[in-house]
Write a structure and sequence with these properties.
The protein has 50 residues and is an all-alpha fold. It contains 2 helices and no strands.
Length: 50
């Protein structure tokens, strides 16, 4: 039963990753650059906060 649960959660994770990859591929480069910039700023703020 635990193995089945692990398999189903793994399949769900794979499906989620595929969906994210599809949406990411559909974004144009401007959006990717903007998101990347926001992530960099967030990480810098976290470093300052720590």
């Amino acid at each position: 039963m635990l193995e089945q649960h692990d398999n189903s959660s793994s399949e769900r994770c794979n499906h989620l990753r595929d969906t994210v990859a599809r949406h990411w591929a559909s974004l144009d480069r401007g959006w990717k650059a903007a998101l990347f910039g926001v992530l960099i700023v967030l990480f810098e703020l976290l470093d300052v906060g720590l």
